[in-house]
Amino acid sequence: MHKILQLQSNLAIAVCLIVALLSVGTDPHLSSTMLLAALSLVVILGVPHGSLDVLFARQTYQLVHVTKWLKFLGFYSASSLLIIALWILVPGFFFVVFLILSAIHFSDDINLSGHQLLKLSYGFAVITFPGVIHGAELTKLYGMIIDLELAQQVVLVSRYVGLFLLPLLLTLFFIKKINIRSQIEIIAIAILFLMATPILAFTIYFCFMHSARHLVRSHFFLNGVKRQEFIYALILPTVAVIFMGLCIWYFKLTPSFEKDLIQIIFVGLAALTVPHAWVLNKAKFSKWATGSFNKID
């Protein structure tokens, strides 16, 4: 493992365990202050990793002409708008499908190449573990996005799946030969999602594991990109996302502050995650990240 990746891994493990420890005995109630803090962290530390999609696309599709750039940006924007439309038209169906796609996407965070069952178990643990202990809080959270009755059913299924994955992950640790660092990362993330309130757990995971790991890997994958281009690619799309989010919030008519924030966070991430995953798949980034990258010293 590269030294920079080791540093990121150490930081993620430490932050996950510290937040989990500090969460013991605290009030899990979802407050406006917590939501604002979560949104700020997601925007500052989480969203930028998706901003690098322009560099991935340029390298993958050889975007050297304006027409090619316009075609890519048009397709990317149309994909995001389609996700928003699906949420408006069929929120329940969209929500369930997105949770499944997110689990698959998150399963690439840790190098579990060759261990497909363990990889998928980890990805779905990220989605389901919050419902094992904090079911009531998760139901309230999901109820701000979809119908409350459906939210209760989703959380119930998540709880049973999470309870099934707990012993499965431990069993696979003993059966599969994976390195100790990967085991510690999975354990730290599992403890975080089991102990911390759902919105806090996701924010910490998304910023310090998912996004941070992607940024480190991208730095090496996009080795032909100049540092100035890398920084611009991080900043400019992120600013655009912030601007669009503020516009959506301003023009929404619902008076619920907390509900608005939750919907902006969830639908915004969903609208960006689907085209983001598509770009990474076309660039064969995941295959490289769990293969060639691990040979870099």
Structural account:
The protein has helices at 3-23, 32-46, 48-51, 53-61, 66-89, 91-106, 116-128, 130-133, 135-143, 148-175, 180-195, 198-221, 227-251, 257-282, 285-289. The chain has one domain (3-22, 30-283). Helix 4 (53-61) packs parallel to helix 14. The model has no long low-confidence stretch (mean pLDDT 83). It has 297 residues and is an all-alpha fold. The chain has 15 helices and no strands.
Topology readout:
Elements: H1 3-23, H2 32-46, H3 48-51, H4 53-61, H5 66-89, H6 91-106, H7 116-128, H8 130-133, H9 135-143, H10 148-175, H11 180-195, H12 198-221, H13 227-251, H14 257-282, H15 285-289
Helix pairs in contact: 1-11, 1-12, 2-12, 2-14, 4-14, 5-6, 5-14, 6-7, 6-14, 7-10, 9-10, 11-12
| First-residue to last-residue Cα separation | 7 Å
Radius of gyration: 19 Å
Per DSSP E runs of 2 or more residues, the count of β-strands stands at 0
Work out the oligomeric state of the chains in this entry.
single chain
Q: Per DSSP, what share of the residues sits in E-state strands of 2 or more residues? A: under 5%
Number of distinct helices: 15
Shape: globular
**Roughly what percent helix?**
over 70%
Tell me the series of helices and strands, N- to C-terminal.
HHHHHHHHHHHHHHH
Q: What is the average of the pLDDT values?
A: 83
Q: Which structural category do the helix and sheet elements fall into?
A: mainly alpha
Count the domains.
Answer: 1
Largest sheet: none
